[in-house]
Design goal:
There is one protein chain. The chain has 272 residues and is mostly helical. The protein folds into 2 domains: 2-88, Orthogonal Bundle (Helix Hairpins); 93-259, no CATH class. 73% of the residues lie in helices and 0% in strands. The chain has 10 helices and no strands. The protein has helices at 2-28, 33-44, 57-119, 126-131, 140-151, 164-173, 175-183, 191-208, 218-249, 251-259. Helix 6 packs across helix 8 (191-208). The longest helix is centred in the N-terminal third of the chain and has 63 residues, at 57-119. It is elongated and about 95 Å long.
Length: 272
């Protein structure tokens, strides 16, 4: 962001120098617009062909000033433009690594965890589940409509039947994966994914801290269900984005993800 501001600043200065220099040489050196513009450019570039040179004292003084300011401004433009290009390329590489991490997350833990939550969501009916049956024919508009529809649906886990013991066992089995993911420096480019991992780790700590999960007091069970719902909503949003991302880029991953859709009661990894 800072490089963009600096590029705009140096770019504005560079254009201003050319405009003012052209006008100056037209006025003091009695040059045509084309000759004045040409001389201004070769002066800033420090080329100095010698075919045009200032004849007046003010023209010579301004030419010296233009060489110093123009060369510095031009280097500033080039340096910041190069930095922006390199930063953009580096960001693309980091985002690609992050998407690979998200693929690992969903294949190892995310999809199964989302399936547990969806199975215990009493607000989900068959019509709602059909909206999440993503397939190969889906286009960008379908994913956009799904994200809009997701905001209009209340996803909420039933606290009376949520399998806390199963969730606790699963999270403890996958704890090493969560720790490796959250320690990855690439996460600094994706704040929302980091928040999801932190929410999952918090849920894991809450569950592990209790000696038993079978006979919990009602307020405590509601509290744990609230932590599960926080993970549920964040996980759902990332799952939609992940499916959208791999749809065209990694069709082989998408094929498996479709066959493991947590909202499909007939989902099977076997190709039918």
């Amino acid at each position: 962001m800072q490089s963009q501001y600096q590029l705009k600043f140096y770019g504005l200065m560079f254009i201003s120098l050319i405009a003012f220099g052209t006008f100056f040489f037209q006025w003091f050196e009695n040059l045509s617009f084309a000759d004045a513009f040409y001389f201004c450019i070769v002066t800033i570039a420090t080329v100095g062909y010698g075919d045009i040179s200032p004849a007046t004292i003010p023209g010579k003084a301004f030419a010296l000033l233009l060489i110093i300011m123009g060369a510095g401004t031009f280097l500033g433009v080039m340096a910041n433009a190069t930095e922006i290009v390199l930063n953009k390329r580096g960001k693309q590489v980091r985002l690609e690594k992050l998407n690979i991490m998200m693929g690992l997350f969903f294949s190892e833990t995310g999809t199964h965890l989302l399936s547990i939550f969806a199975d215990n969501d009493s607000n989900l009916n068959e019509d709602t589940k059909k909206s999440f049956l993503i397939n190969n024919s889906w286009k960008d508009d379908d994913f956009i409509n799904l994200k809009k529809k997701r905001t209009n649906i209340e996803f909420k886990i039933n606290h009376e039947k949520i399998p806390l013991i199963e969730i606790n066992r699963f999270l403890n089995e996958k704890s090493e994966i969560f720790l490796r993911l959250i320690e990855n420096p690439t996460l600094q480019d994706h704040e929302k994914f980091t928040e999801l991992l932190i929410a999952i780790l918090h849920l894991k700590e809450e569950l592990t801290a209790r000696k038993q999960l079978k006979r919990l007091p009602e307020p405590d069970r509601l509290h744990l269900t609230g932590d599960c719902n926080r993970v549920y909503l964040k996980l759902l949003d990332h799952w939609i984005d992940y499916m959208w991302y791999i749809k065209d880029r990694y069709p082989f991953l998408f094929s498996l993800a479709v066959r493991q859709n947590p909202f499909d009661s007939e989902a099977s990894v076997n190709v039918k």
